[in-house]
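TL;DR need structure tokens for one chain.
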Amino acid sequence: MNNNTTPTSEDRIQELEKQLSVLREKYFFLETENKAISEEKEKYQLISDYAQDWEFWIYPKGDFKWLSPSCNDLTGYTVNEFFNDPNLFFKIIYPDDESQIRQFLRDSISFMQIGQSIEFRLLTRTKQLRWCELNSKGVFDRMGSYLGQRGSIRDITRLKSALGQIREMSDKQVWEMKTKQKYKDEIAGKDRELVTSLIQIAQKNEMVLYLRKNLSVIRNTLPAPIQKKVTDMLLKIDEHQRRQVFNWEDFKFHFEKVHQGFFTRLKDKYPGLTPKDQRLCAYINLGLSTKDIAGLVNITPESTEIGRIRLRKKLGLSRLNNLFEFLQEI
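>> reply
TL;DR here they are.
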């Protein structure tokens, strides 16, 4: 006699009701937990947004991920202005302190120093001098992955004044500061002019290569008489490209007028760099993209990227170092 009994519809309903009850309990638990997390997130967001100090979070590569609105209270510049101009932070730092701050942030990001602080000066939108203290600390997720640096900038101008450590700047200091800023602005303007002309050359070369490639592809699909005309066109394009070779010496002359001694300092510090490496350094120093550099020297973007990787190795830089910023300090 078979003792196994087939479950009835009523047994099946009871089982489903039990499962439904468990699911409801889990749903209630998750809903409660999500609500708590949402409330915590809102609380921390409010704390961050209304913090008196200027709080920020930078990626491992060095660019800003998040800024607290208090940056406006301290500097007169908004969060959006800092995001729209990645170099604005360094532009408002007092010229004599800029290199120290750049080095401090590089060391913090690469863990050359941990839990350190530094004092520096900055100029607000209205050109008021402020003494500040910057503290930074590494940020990690629950799995231990490095997410960048969390920084805090505090205005210590009143403290410095109370301790008698701040003296009014003399007329000579003010003049020197304005002269340095004016010089930096002039260099930036000349760089923009040079970059504009280089990009135009790169775009023209890119278009010529694009046309040549496509003409070569379709040539064999055309009637013989037209093939000959296309071949003549390709020969003229090649001849034009040979005659329009980018004049490196002209570029170097104009570049050196703006960045005096750049190639000499570069060669002294890194004698192992080839002339090709030095040219790449100059292009990167101007902020040209990989695509623009490739178009300028008539090579593929992939080849340019390989050149950048090799250059990093020769300069002894890690992935955390910003190549553009590094060359700006040469």
